[in-house]
Amino acid sequence: MPYAAPIADMRFALEACADFWSLRQRFPDLDEDTLAAILEGAGALAGETLAPLNRSGDQAGVTLKEGVVTAAPGFQEAYNAFKDGGWQALAADPAYGGQGLPRSLALAVMETFHSANMSFALLPMLTLGAIEAIEQHGATDQKALYLEKLVSGEWSGTMNLTEPQAGSDLGALTTKAVPQADGSYAITGQKIFITWGEHDLAPNIIHLVLARIEGAPAGSKGISMFIVPKFRDSDGSRNAVRCIGVEEKMGIHASPTCTLAYEGATGWLIGEENRGLAAMFTMMNAARLNVGMEGVGVAEAAYQKALAYAKERKQGGALIIEHPDVRRMLMTMRAKIQAARAICYATAVAADRGDKAREDLLTPLAKACGTDVGVEVTSLGVQVHGGMGFVEEGGAAQFYRDARIAPIYEGTNGIQAIDLYGRKLLGDRGEAMGVLIAEARQTAGSHHPKFAAAVDALEEATAYMLSAAREDALAGAYAYLQLAGDVVGAMLLIQGGARDSTAEQAAVLRFYARTILARAPSRMAEIKLGAAALTSEDFAG
Amino acid sequence: MPYAAPIADMRFALEACADFWSLRQRFPDLDEDTLAAILEGAGALAGETLAPLNRSGDQAGVTLKEGVVTAAPGFQEAYNAFKDGGWQALAADPAYGGQGLPRSLALAVMETFHSANMSFALLPMLTLGAIEAIEQHGATDQKALYLEKLVSGEWSGTMNLTEPQAGSDLGALTTKAVPQADGSYAITGQKIFITWGEHDLAPNIIHLVLARIEGAPAGSKGISMFIVPKFRDSDGSRNAVRCIGVEEKMGIHASPTCTLAYEGATGWLIGEENRGLAAMFTMMNAARLNVGMEGVGVAEAAYQKALAYAKERKQGGALIIEHPDVRRMLMTMRAKIQAARAICYATAVAADRGDKAREDLLTPLAKACGTDVGVEVTSLGVQVHGGMGFVEEGGAAQFYRDARIAPIYEGTNGIQAIDLYGRKLLGDRGEAMGVLIAEARQTAGSHHPKFAAAVDALEEATAYMLSAAREDALAGAYAYLQLAGDVVGAMLLIQGGARDSTAEQAAVLRFYARTILARAPSRMAEIKLGAAALTSEDFAG
Asked: Judged by CB atoms within 8 Å, which residues 441-470 of A form the interface with B?
């Protein structure tokens, strides 16, 4: 059975859990029928065009020859269908051809693409990042030059952060930018792990590149962002950026992960000098949310495949779905997906509503919980298949391999935990989290004792994180993020049930409350573990 | 850094935790120096010969051409070194060239091979299964014919259970055996997922095959076990068993997973008619323990690689091992490995001691906990590496791919949970588990309150499992197995600390108690969830 967009679950998560229609006043032209039509159209593209290329793309991978990267067979036709459908334009500014729809709706659409073909979906995801960066930080002439073609999908975009000597530590990057007489900069350096950094699906690629202007301060305060088009704007000539390597990866084989060599490439400063990191973070926040969605998307695909297998495979005379342990696995998959989906959508709705504090607070949860769910659920998907799960032909294995990147890129999940603690919690001394906890407590009321207990735990844990020594708080940050994710997921499922109660969603919530929320005490133990407990002779120099 | 056998950890787990020297009277010739020399010799073979072939074997895989399977480059030389070292003979009967050493020691030796090269180690693991089956069920002439050459490693062995239409459901198998005039049987049918079912490393392969004698009862009571040598004993002619396919798998690429076609192959009944399943279970129990060990082995390899990476990789000016969240991941890996290792060794020591009840009880724990740890720890290993973890060159990805099979084969972990509940717990109405709980309670004494609470939980959960309706118990069986594993792991670590206390092992125990044992309440919630909670509209026909 191929992937089919789970429209009912998506709509419940978006409209009931994430309170999508709180945006009605901001988007007066949008109605239920339009929303349904958009999701169904996306689901059709995902199920009929992208999903059939998932396994063949995994097998074919990409090829690099003399700097030219060739995508897997069928990807050009799929990209054309995506582009012609106007899917890149959903949430973009109408001034540049966008449709001005909510980002939360665009995110739900992206979910279906992530489910159907994670490798493919990375291309529009990165382009979206470039669009947002230019929308928010570009000068008027830069917007005029690039936005329309990015929004239409004619051109694609990339993010260039990582360098060989500097992984997550952007302050250590050394790519340099030398001012030229015409106002441009000559960019020189090497960038690694550039997703869709080079390919043949679009006639131009717009690279957004972090580099250091000659004489800029050391560290992260001396980093600027540049636009480096693959083909120069002035004369259409090939710019001095070359793909010199493509990684051999465990998964997402159809998505080229490039090493790009910049050799005096023409770049244009975007935003202010030495403020590149701030600009990149705007872009990265959206990307983080989208990566969380990606985790949910691949999890959904794995769930559907496992469910179909369990309903057709006989064992001991009965379908394996009759076995309680198989049902346990499937129910775990179902509940975790639905909670993580609600978190991702709610983060985007907060952004659409202009609730920056909530958006910022939820973004690390969406990224880390969504991608952890991706890994866990795809692993359960393999397990449900038994031996066939380990054989590539079955498809479950690919989901497992593909999903494993998501907790790593756009800031590892460990970095998300540090972000939640350092920037989000300490940043406002717990104010935004306090608002969230108050909302959760109100949601709990007197009808949800298990949830109320988890909210109490989150409150206690928050007080601990705010008062603990930094090293101790960091030792507990991951478990804190997990507890917060458990609570927010349950809160959204309960709120969803209050807005639109169905027996099915109520069953999912009950399972979630009885299993996942029961982990609050052990999360607390891990939160309060303290740095001193993380000591081993093995760790010594 | 290549793999180095963790001799200190292994000896602590074997001698202190698993009480290896309780076997002293049974093995009077064995002393500490011999034990150390054997482990160090195994570690040398593993680290110097097998580990260097792990990545190249993954890349090269195996080839099948006209029925001939060719192993990856270097594997012949490695197998020769293994054979010449006499490693297959460790625990075998001295009457057939074995060294008559404890199976627990042989298991510890196997751990190092699993760590170094999971694909390679499967070959001696399967041969070991064949040796044990023939030792326990073979007639005198069968022993004379096969054992010496299997024990020396000259020939290898296989287990043939699964058929395309019958995965874990052995009662459904259809391979048939027709009696011949000379007392042999003509075996006809197809077997799938046969590990090292065909290869070029040994001149003969001894297949142990489940099949149904013409006219035998239906279901599992009509299954017999046969010895089918690749080359016939009588005249050395090629037997009618052919490899007609090799699976394309997610991992263990260097180990051929074969589809074998039996076309009237000459086979010899081993053990009694229609009692093949019982014979196969003897063999499978040993194999299950070894697969648990395999999970621990690949986890250890992943831990060592992640630890080395964390100690050399700088991020933000500091080594990443200085980051509390990285230490949290490494400490989690370290503690889970050590507990699961102790469980596996203790299972083997129970077998060596002749404590069948304890061996039977612990076998599903060793298999499921060891392999779950394999998946979890290799995933953390990828995460510690960041982006490099997803790139195949780094090696962490291979461990993650390889490890994923272990919770599936030799009975999925879900089947282990059913085994623990159905055969082990119901089988003696909780007697063996009661003995274990009493020992755990004594171990807890008054010094280990967290452990005592977990023991209480296990006791309560055991009472529940014994009294619950079957479907409800099955719904909670997996969590029950996990809780039992947590408790047994902690018990063995505490007992180990009492026999040989070091600051390092005490730190591991403290971490284990404060994090893993803290999960007992949520395990309990999952145990008592009940079958009715596992209901979704999605699951309906």
From this structure: none
